[in-house]
Design brief:
By secondary structure, the chain is α/β, with parallel strands linked by helices. Helices cover 51% and strands 11% of the residues. It has a seven-stranded parallel beta sheet, with helices on both faces. The structure holds adenosine-5'-diphosphate and zinc ion.
């Protein structure tokens, strides 16, 4: 039964992990806490029970933009849904309640403020409620960053209503979890925690240099693919967007310092596929559900793994492969440390940053590091991170480390990394000479290593604990006990060449082209279907992904359904969507098969016109006359349409005997299956245009 509903309304064949269990628990009347990562498919967990039960489900959601999006998506699947929040007028609200009472609305989304209003309370007391869903339930916790005071007043739901409550969140930590259960007063709740692994996300960390070149390289291989670049500062987002624009790339910036209307415009353009790239501060992303974000770049190191994972999680919600790239530099570490020094949670933040660095510096599978941080025992190599794909080759870096450490010792731990590198590289800087540092033994001892490479090595050394940085004292480098082991006890140190990692990544990017002719064609068809989708979305004033997801279009582009049956098999094509859009996409696929890349729009239109006339009941002769075309041409149009499964029949345009004669001729050994030879073989008794039709029928019968 729930499988049928899944198929019928959502067009999906199978459930994602835990969806079925959660749905079953709700249908059994249990309160539930569902913890799933972004993109895990939380919405379906309450939408489907809402559909199969009588009454209306009340969904509490803190973000206005997400409410609208979900309601649009439900309606596109033919499901009655509405939302109530501050943007809805009193009269609209009256109408919505009428629809609820007349059972037209299966899901009603409300903001917490609305839910808590006296008015609303009176009204929901009178209606038939199937369940309550509390979305983004972590907002209840004061520990989290999205705390919403109204959420703490939701406990009346469990006290006053007998229906199940399901709380949903992507935040997994135990404090938040317990907070949700306690504050909502969930009754013997069943807790479901799904894996936080998002295996469709590739993970790469690159040295934070040549960032801009590498971004261009990366984006250049991802034409038309939407992505987000997270930056640390507002200014950076603007600069980066400007630079990308000047290269003809399609980017906008987004940060909290922009006017509300500008921010909204940037977000809308991104959601509606009108702009490809958003360069944003972390302010961006909360209010969007866009499932087809294909990549996320971190221009700077995030301050902890929680933020990082949440931000990369915005890519690939639709389950298709998506790529993430993090630039990691010594400078960012210093900047973040400075922030931390100024904060009042120094210890905690420092520990979190250290874990972030461990991840960025990892020489084992990064997904392992990440998921183990989130307490998810993950004990295999993922195969989808840069370390798995290109295991870094370590070399004996003891001498390099010794040179650096010895220099630090000789200048009495009084310099920062910049000066250290200058000393090692034997710079003629006045400051060095004045301080007598150009006299020390290691001056110039690291000349053979470039400045940039030194930066990388120092970062690696810092992370191994070979020295410390006095963040509150000019970032001076200080020796540690480990430094002494290396300097005096011959402890060996392994380093990784930054150049090598970067080069391998570059090569990998080059290989990103479609592998075969078939793939290339499928990509072209995908793009064609995207443009069809875009037009439909614009007409209906909804984001394109509301029409069909990228995953659905991808499947169409590879399996090329041209019949109703085949189209209905595509994941994401539910009953309602088939009725709305099925034929349109079947046609789009046929046209594409027919005319290849529909750059040949004119030809496509001609065929379409012929088809339209035929459907209106005109004969081929009449069509030829109307369009001022040769009858053979018209029949060749018809032959094509017939061949590509348009619902037309050609049999009525030639006599049975004529068809038989043509088929006989086709069986004649050695006779070419072309108009002229057949015409001559039949002594000119059957006109060319009929032979054209006959050939087409015979050919189709063969298959
Ligand atoms: P979350 O709220 O957990 O981030 P969503 O509910 O927005 O995730 O779902 C993410 C995407 O996955 C949506 O595009 C949704 O349509 C799709 N999805 C959900 N369940 C399934 C399923 N069983 N099969 C295929 N796609 C699904
Ligand atoms: Zn891995």
């Amino acid at each position: 039964m729930i499988h049928e509903t899944l198929r019928k309304y959502f067009g999906y064949e199978t459930f994602r992990p835990l969806q079925e269990e959660i749905i079953q628990a709700i249908l059994d009347g249990s309160d539930c806490l569902a913890i799933m990562p972004t993109g895990g498919g939380k919405s379906l967990c309450f939408q489907l029970p809402a559909l199969v039960q009588k009454g209306t489900a009340i969904v509490i959601s803190p973000l206005i933009s997400l409410m609208k999006d979900q309601v649009d998506a439900l309606r596109a699947n033919g499901i009655g849904a509405a939302y109530l929040n501050s943007t809805i007028s009193a009269s609209e609200s009256v109408q919505i309640f009428r629809d609820v009472i007349s059972a037209k609305i299966k899901l009603l989304y409300v903001s917490p403020e609305k839910l808590l209003s006296q008015d609303f309370y009176r009204q929901i007391k009178t209606i038939d409620i199937s369940l309550f869903a509390v979305d983004e339930a972590h907002c209840i916790s004061q520990w989290g960053h999205d705390f919403r005071p109204e959420y703490t007043q939701l406990n009346f739901l469990s006290r006053e209503f007998k229906v199940p409550i399901i709380a949903l969140t992507a935040t997994a930590d135990r404090i938040t979890r317990n907070d949700i259960i306690r504050q909502l007063g969930l009754r013997k709740p069943q807790t479901f925690i799904s894996s936080f692994d998002r295996e469709n996300l590739s993970i790469t960390v690159l040295p934070g240099r040549e960032k801009y070149e590498n971004i261009k390289r990366f984006v250049g291989k991802r034409k038309n693919q939407a992505g987000i670049i997270y930056c640390l500062s507002r200014k950076q987002t603007e600069q980066l967007a400007n630079n990308l624009n000047s290269e003809g790339l399609d980017a906008v910036s987004y940060h909290a310092g922009m006017k509300g209307s500008e921010r909204q415009a940037a977000q809308d353009d991104f959601i509606n596929d009108r702009v490809q790239i958003v360069c944003a501060t972390v302010a961006f992303g909360m209010g969007i559900d866009k499932p087809n974000v294909r990549w996320v770049i971190h221009y700077n190191l995030p301050k902890n793994l929680e933020s990082y994972y949440q931000e990369i999680g915005r890519a690939g919600r639709d389950g298709l492969p998506a790529d993430t790239l993090l630039f990691y530099s010594y400078r960012d570490v210093l900047t973040l440390k400075r922030f931390i020094e100024e904060s009042n949670q120094k210890d905690l933040l420092t520990r979190k940053l250290e874990r972030m660095q461990q991840f960025a510096d990892a020489r084992t599978c990064r997904r392992r590091v990440l998921l183990n941080y989130f307490n998810e025992g993950y004990d295999k190599d993922c195969g989808n991170c840069d370390v798995c794909q290109n295991p870094p080759e370590v070399f004996d870096g003891t001498v390099i480390a010794q040179k650096a450490l010895s220099a630090i010792a000789r200048v009495k731990e009084q310099i920062s990394s910049g000066l250290l590198i200058d000393i090692l590289r034997g710079s003629a800087r006045k400051e060095l000479v004045d301080n007598g540092w150009s006299e020390i033994k290691t001056y110039g001892a690291g000349r053979d290593i470039s400045y940039r490479d030194w930066q990388e090595y120092l970062l690696q050394m810092l992370n191994i604990g070979l020295f410390e940085v006095a963040y509150n004292d000019g970032n001076k480098l200080k020796l540690t006990s480990l430094s002494r082991d290396v300097l005096f006890d011959g402890k060996k140190i392994n380093l990784v060449s930054p150049e090598e990692a970067e080069n391998r990544w570059k090569q990998q990017q080059e290989k990103k082209q479609p592998q075969s002719k078939v793939e290339e064609l499928d990509n072209a068809l995908f793009e064609h279907l995207r443009s069809v989708r875009k037009n439909l979305a614009t007409e209906r004033n909804v984001p394109p992904y509301i029409i069909f997801s990228d995953a659905t279009l991808k499947q169409m582009a590879t399996t090329k359904p041209t019949t109703e049956f085949a189209m209905r098999q595509i994941s994401g094509v539910g009953e309602f969507k088939y009725e709305q859009f099925g034929i349109i996409f079947i046609r789009a696929i046929m046209d594409f098969n027919q005319f290849g890349n529909t750059n040949d729009k004119k030809a496509a239109n001609r065929y379409q016109t012929t088809y339209n006339f035929l459907k209106k009941g005109y004969t081929p002769e009449e069509i030829a006359e109307r369009l001022n075309l040769n009858i053979v041409t018209v029949c060749s149009h018809l032959a094509y349409l017939y061949q590509s499964d348009y619902d037309i029949s050609l049999q009525e345009f030639l006599e049975k005997e004529e068809l038989q004669k043509i088929e006989e001729a086709l069986r004649t050994p050695g006779l070419k299956h072309e108009l002229k030879p057949i015409y001559e073989h039949l002594n000119g008794k059957i006109p060319y245009h009929k032979i054209r039709l006959g050939l087409s029928i015979a050919k189709k019968e063969q298959y």
